[in-house]
Amino acid sequence: MKILVCISNVPDTTSKINFTADNKEFDKNGVQYVINPWDEYALTRAIELKEAKGGTVTVLNVGEADAEPNIRKALAIGADDAIRVNAKPVDAFFVAQQIAAVAKENNYDMILMGKESIDYNGSQVHGMVGEILGIPSVVPAFKLDMVDDSTARLEREIEGGKEVVEVKLPFVASAQQPMSEPRIPNMRGIMTARTKPLKVVEPTGAEAKAEYVNYSKPEKKGGVKMIDPENAGELITLLRNEAKVL
Amino acid sequence: MSVLVFVEGLNGEIKKSSLEAASYGSQVAQQLGTTATAVAIGEVHEEALAKLSEQGIGKVLYDADDRLKQFVADAYVKVIAKAAQQESAKVLVFSNSNIGAAVGAKLAVRLNGSLATNVTSLPKTDGGQFVVTRGVFSGKAFADVNLAADVKIIAVKKNSFEISQNAGNAATVEKLSADLTDADFAAAPKETVMQDTDGGVLLPEAEIVVSGGRGLKGPENWHLVEDLAKALGAATACSKPVSDMDWRPHHEHVGQTGITVSPNLYIAIGISGAIQHLAGVNSSKVIVVINKDPEAPFFKAADYGIVGDAFEVVPKLIEAAKALDK
Ligand SMILES: Cc1cc2nc3c(=O)[nH]c(=O)nc-3n(C[C@H](O)[C@H](O)[C@H](O)COP(=O)(O)OP(=O)(O)OC[C@H]3O[C@@H](n4cnc5c(N)ncnc54)[C@H](O)[C@@H]3O)c2cc1C
Ligand SMILES: Cc1cc2nc3c(=O)[nH]c(=O)nc-3n(C[C@H](O)[C@H](O)[C@H](O)COP(=O)(O)OP(=O)(O)OC[C@H]3O[C@@H](n4cnc5c(N)ncnc54)[C@H](O)[C@@H]3O)c2cc1C
């Protein structure tokens, strides 16, 4: 089985988010980048399927050279090879077209992604890739198993419940907890990752459809009002009469 | 040219988040000097559809194909695309639900449109631009995005817009048929299992959320969270370790790697307020924190706080909440 796992390179979850002085760009100064946490669920599930059934796991990132440490990390966790589409990924549509172009050349049996990229919170690249390729996209899935060699069974979350879906290969799915238990690379993984192939390809001439023009931060909270624990019921009165939320 | 709103039904009624989307859509229509039409899919009563006039919708298109009772992305997309074509819609509005985001992405490709999800503002349309504000970096920032393509697709963040209540005539309801074939249902779910909310409120749609963390010591103490939630008409949620330890089901886990909620009121009991937890709740309008540690980081993000033992404080809150007249 040939599995493609798409990873985005995102600021660590503890990062302070700042913008350049003109508020036109994200300020990368002092920011640590990690593999998008949701993508790790996709990656480890892909590796588990490979371990159980054989095949290969390829990781793909659309990004610049500064994403390579995290691509190597994915190789250290257990992917076999990697592709980086050498481009600044400026919107989801552009990214989706790059992923689809790579997929068209390589005939993957499944394309796994994360539920959402934690930087731009789009939740859309998977649906777009499925639509461009004309194959189903099952989003967001929290369980993925093979029924037989050509059929997968997934459970996806819907508001207030879940759906069980069976799809023929190939398909796109996005992963969320508890699809798998993300792994930490071991020493051997880190050593072998250095020599695993990482191919850099140039982007296809695709356009962006959304233009980011400005950033802002939420207004600061006015400070916390403390209530005496002995008189805790007072909180309910304040929530009704002052905050007006009850 | 018109604005098309996609509304989702559930058990005969229209979801609250879809009523928000409809209110948003008709305001956009007003801004652009046009009308707003809705396309409804799923199980909805006709009376509920006609009442969409309260949200400013003049006409509702409804595809009553029984197979659409379950969510099937390809079929839903075909119905919405058909409605968009029929109405020459240039702006499509959805709720940023799992379903809305899934169909929005596919439609963006099919209609060659610009898509913005997680949208928190009405568009600014001066100078020929179409700029909306959307939440980015997990609630830590907002971005203004210009949707440059001819067709603009907007998925509205839940609980970010008031549901409008206009008086006036009922909306007209028209049948729509998208000539669906079996192929459109190839990825239809084998089975749909709805959570047993025990008459309670669903977390993604809730206006009030009561959430518990590791400070509650174990699942046997969850009656504190549940009883307070019941008294307030709230949904229940939890922190990640709580669901990792199986004290609570995974769909209750909020935060960076769980679900994002933006209720009017979020009450956190025995949760420290780690940055990854805050990422899922920081756009709540009012945050209450109950923690025995005065140094807990969550207090910095709170509007109201109580430093105290949850096992003593929460029963007092339940009592006070029960005494409220509804
Ligand atoms: C203005 C702007 C500036 C940006 N600057 C940078 C930057 O400096 N460095 C950088 O690395 N990225 C940058 N990005 C790209 C960003 O990290 C995302 O990759 C892209 O915007 C898609 O975001 P989304 O929230 O729509 O993705 P979603 O639809 O939420 O992503 C869903 C899934 O798609 C896959 N995916 C998403 N993006 C990629 C990708 N790039 N490669 C492979 N798979 C992917 C992942 O599996 C992800 O879980 C920038 C984006 C914008 C809009
Ligand atoms: C990549 C990544 C993603 C993550 N994603 C998420 C996520 O999505 N959601 C999430 O929640 N976490 C997430 N985490 C974990 C997060 O960092 C914290 O570990 C977690 O939120 C802590 O949960 P907690 O507050 O319940 O527990 P703790 O941090 O253990 O806090 C328990 C709190 O209870 C208080 N307490 C104890 N006893 C009492 C009492 N009797 N009365 C009142 N208060 C009491 C304590 O003072 C303490 O503040 C993530 C971490 C990483 C690295």
From TrEMBL, chain A:
Keyword GTP-binding among record annotations: no
Respond yes or no to whether keyword Transport is given for this record: yes
Q: Which branch of life, at top level?
A: Bacteria
Q: Which family does it belong to?
A: Belongs to the ETF beta-subunit/FixA family.
Q: What is this protein called?
A: Electron transfer flavoprotein subunit beta
Task: Give all residue intervals belonging to the Electron transfer flavoprotein alpha/beta-subunit N-terminal domain.
Answer: 23-210
CDD domains the record matches: ETF_beta
Sorted UniProt keywords: Electron transport, Transport
One example GO MF annotation: electron transfer activity
Instruction: Choose one Gene Ontology CC annotation of this protein and give it.
Output: cytosol
From TrEMBL, chain B:
Name used for this protein in its record: Electron transfer flavoprotein subunit alpha/FixB family protein
A single BP term in Gene Ontology = fatty acid beta-oxidation using acyl-CoA dehydrogenase
Would you say which domain of life the source belongs to? Bacteria
Where would one find coiled-coil regions in this protein? Answer: none
> Which cofactors are reported in the record for this sequence?
FAD
Keywords in alphabetical order, please.
Electron transport, FAD, Flavoprotein, Transport
Q: Is the keyword Transmembrane helix assigned to this protein?
A: no
What the record says about family reads: Belongs to the ETF alpha-subunit/FixB family.
Pfam family, any one: ETF
Q: Name one GO molecular function term.
A: electron transfer activity
User: Where's the Electron transfer flavoprotein alpha/beta-subunit N-terminal domain?
Assistant: 3-189
Can you tell me which residues bind FAD?
Answer: R214, G270, I271, S272, G273, A274, I275, Q276, H277, N291
Q: Which organism is it from?
A: Pontibacter mangrovi
PANTHER family reported for this sequence: ELECTRON TRANSFER FLAVOPROTEIN ALPHA, ELECTRON TRANSFER FLAVOPROTEIN SUBUNIT ALPHA, MITOCHONDRIAL
What SMART domains does its record include?
ETF
Instruction: Write down how the cofactor binds this protein.
Output: Binds 1 FAD per dimer.
